[in-house]
Design brief:
Elements (H helix, E strand, L loop, with lengths): L8 H4 L6 E3 L1 H5 L2 E2 L2 E6 L2 E4 L11 H5 L7 H7 L3 H8 L3 E5 L10 H13 L7 H25 L3 H26 L7 H14 L5 H13 L22 H7 L10 H8 L4 H16 L3 H47 L15 H8 L2 E2 L3 H7 L5 H6 L8 H15 L5 E2 L1 H23 L3
Parallel strand pairs: 1-5, 6-7
Antiparallel strand pairs: 2-3, 3-4, 4-5
Helix pairs in contact: 6-18, 7-8, 8-9, 8-14, 9-14, 11-19, 12-19, 13-14
Keywords: Fatty acid biosynthesis, Fatty acid metabolism, Lipid biosynthesis, Lipid metabolism, Membrane, Oxidoreductase, Transmembrane, Transmembrane helix
GO biological process, one term: unsaturated fatty acid biosynthetic process
InterPro entries: Cyt_B5-like_heme/steroid-bd (IPR001199), Cyt_B5-like_heme/steroid_sf (IPR036400), FA_desaturase_dom (IPR005804), Fatty_acid_desaturase (IPR012171)
Length: 439
Amino acid sequence: MGGGGQQTESESSCGRGGGVFTWEEVQRHSHKGDQWLVIDRKVYNITDWVKRHPGGARVISHYAGEDATDAFAAFHPEPDFVRKFLKPLLIGELATSEPNQDRDKNAFRELREEVEREGLFRTQPLFFCLHLGHILLLEALAYLLIWVYGTGWLQTLLCAVILATSQSQAGWLQHDFGHLSVFKKSRWNHLLHKFVIGHLKGASANWWNHRHFQHHAKPNIFSKDPDVNMLHTFVLGKTQPVEYGIKEIKYMPYNHQHQYFFLIGPPMLIPVYFHIQIMQTMFFRRDWVDLVWSMSYYLRYFTCYTPFYGVFGAVALISFVRFLESHWFVWVTQMNHIPMDIDHERHEDWLTMQLKATCNIEQSFFNDWFSGHLNFQIEHHLFPTMPRHNYCRVAPLVRKVCEKHGVTYQEKTLWSGFRDVVSSLRESGDLWLDAYLHK
């Protein structure tokens, strides 16, 4: 082996941990059925572990052949506990002559150490208690509105708006638990995550975990971030449109995608695409626990509203609620990512990769509440396990590091964020048309 290897490759995979490897050797093991990665310069053979990885096989596989140090720290609030599972997978370390693959690793490490010293990973329980309380209050208010004032059109519309608000806010809360940012112990976060996303929203915690962690691991990277997998409905960024155009791929009239986005994007994502995908995932993976949590939501909902509207009316009401919620969700989540750099894998360091794929929306009380603090998307992506009430405190530290290392830190108004979603779709569509017509 190169780089001063002290044992054969077959011996190194037996868990002895004595191998010394070069990056060239590590990068050769980046295929399905043969995967290594590096954490703190230690080399691990994860080939047999990926299927048992609690966060899903794909998210860990996205770092095969790469340095996963910062991703490991970002996703695991209990690193010492997790290292017990890593120990049997250890096969060696990088040769001393090998550099860290992430060129700005030291800069981000220093930032993370400062954040930890400032105690910015500590949670304020009252914040999350009040947030859960206002969600439950909205649920009760929607029901009482119909019970007291009847099922007229105005009352029903107001009820739907209140329920959509509750669902959207519950979506931000499940996001907190899903990222293990509320409790110190992961198992309590997992339990409350299933309660909020399952019983309060009717969705699946495991489906969300396996999808969303991929997004955080490799944001805006084709074939790795499921959020930019548009199933040929849209073309994104500056690379994909040209590739589609040159190959004369035309599943849709992409030069009009900024217009049909309003018809098939915000209105359909949650009530159609996500709903079908969630149900398929739970059944195909036989995830009966999440299915029971999900069904508890629908049992509670139909028990409450069928007596007023009948079965058909209750279905119509929840469909309209999902329709409203979907608009809220799409605009908030896409304003931080769609206008940013979207491309194929470039193997960039954690800080650069996250800042290229994310931007912030300016802070205000309304923006914080409306977006579930995802207006601080940069800070959230850099520190996904950080409680969101601390994003405003860490933001100045992140800005300082970005200025020092010449990394662009983007912040815009809420309206600009919405507008840029449409303008970026228009720009990508024009790029596709130019390439399609061979201009």
